[in-house]
Amino acid sequence: MANTELAIGADYKENRSSFIFDVNLSTAIAADGKTEAQAPVPKGPLSPDMLDKMNRYWRAANYLCIGQIYLFENPLLREPLKAEQIKPRLLGHWGTSPGQNLIYIHLNRLIKEHDADIIYISGPGHGGPSLNACSYLEGTYTEVHPEITTDEDGLRLMFRKFSTPGGVPSHCGPHVPNSMHEGGELGYSLVHAFGAAFDNPNLIVACVVGDGESETCPLEGSWKSVNFLNPVRDGAVLPILHLNGYKISGPTAQGRTSDADLKALYTGRGYKPFFVEGDDPEVVHQLLAQALDDCYVDIRSIQHEARVGGHLADDYPAHAQGMDVSEGGRWNPDRRNVSCSSGPTCHSPRKSRASQNP
Ligand SMILES: Cc1ncc(C[n+]2csc(CCOP(=O)(O)OP(=O)(O)O)c2C)c(N)n1
Ligand SMILES: [Mg+2]
User: Which residues, listed in sequence order, are joined to residue 276 by a DSSP beta bridge?
Assistant: First the structure.
């Protein structure tokens, strides 16, 4: 994977232009009026048709997240937006949603292509819009909540119910079809993931861990659970570190750690790290699809070796039983305003501390 990543990431990185943060627009714009050079879309496992479909699905899920967080009325923006159609009190945050949607959609591809038995656990806080959106697009949300119909009225109700008294919470909860992890208090996603994998030999538990969440004590300790996973009788855990650099608006320690140090850290913990990052969706789709394919092959081959070859049968494996996919944009002190596909526009740390999460 490392070679593939370098090979297909190189052109793309060289061709990236720099961005500056426009305070008035509250977004990143190209620096010095330069337009972004068109980077070649890398080759990867996704056919053009599949890439297009997945990208559309991702954009639709992103829209549904924005609607849940911000919209009170006018759910399909069929008329020009008025101030009174925006929710007076916002809860949930956008920064975690695009990355989690991306991962969800890519895991669905893995499930379909390999007929794999995979469940998804969402750790980062206020990621509820993402789970609601993806299950709504699948149809499972409406199956469980028939009042949330697949039309404009259903969308309006879904948006209004989000994070409102008597509605649904801003994090994953029992209302989400097939959920087994209640969000809210950060720190327990990974231990729940390992718990689900023990004695469940065919299961792969994909667990998205926030880089802020990973600073909590329970999460920090949970990485050690890989030492108790037996490749013969247990399933596998695929932790996916959502390294968007921030915990809402506060900087994270790992967001300011070099790739080399992160690699050493997770290797030492018994994982085999893969890195996926970028700010061009088409490129990131290919990189992530490749990384997940590689993780899947690695997991199955470790299990095959242990189950058929007899290696590691009764040992607690101290090597790669889980994988880590670090995903998202990284804050870079030399290029302060980096927009990333999987998180918010990354702000300068000097401006970033004001609205730390309640
Ligand atoms: C134990 C705990 N502390 C603080 C919070 C408040 N909180 C909710 S979301 C969040 C930031 C989470 O950041 P991260 O895990 O990086 O997820 P991201 O949104 O960046 O994907 C915080 C601090 C919480 N929910 N639980
Ligand atoms: Mg984060």
Answer: 327
For the CA of 100, the closest atom of ligand 1 is 21
Least confident of 33-42, 189-198, 250-259: 33-42
- 316-337 per-position pLDDT tens digit: 333 333 333 343 333 332 222 2
First vs last C-alpha separation in the chain: 39
> Residue 157: what pLDDT?
98
Residue 357, pLDDT above cutoff 70: no
Ligand 1 pocket list (CB less than 6 A): 95-96, 124-126, 184-187, 210-213, 216, 242, 244, 246-248, 252, 357
What separation in angstroms does the CA of 320 have from each of 263, 265, 295?
13, 13, 10
Query: Pocket of ligand 1, candidates 213, 214, 256: which has the most ligand atoms within 8 Å of its Cβ, to mutate?
Result: 213
Q: Which of 65, 90, 220, 248 to mutate to test the pocket of ligand 1 (most atoms within 8 A of CB)?
A: 248
Distance (Å, rounded) from C-alpha 123 to C-alpha 47? Answer: 30
Cα 72 to Cα 160: distance, rounded to the nearest angstrom = 6
Ligand 1, closest atom to CA 209?
Answer: 15
**DSSP element (H, E) containing 129:** helix 128-138
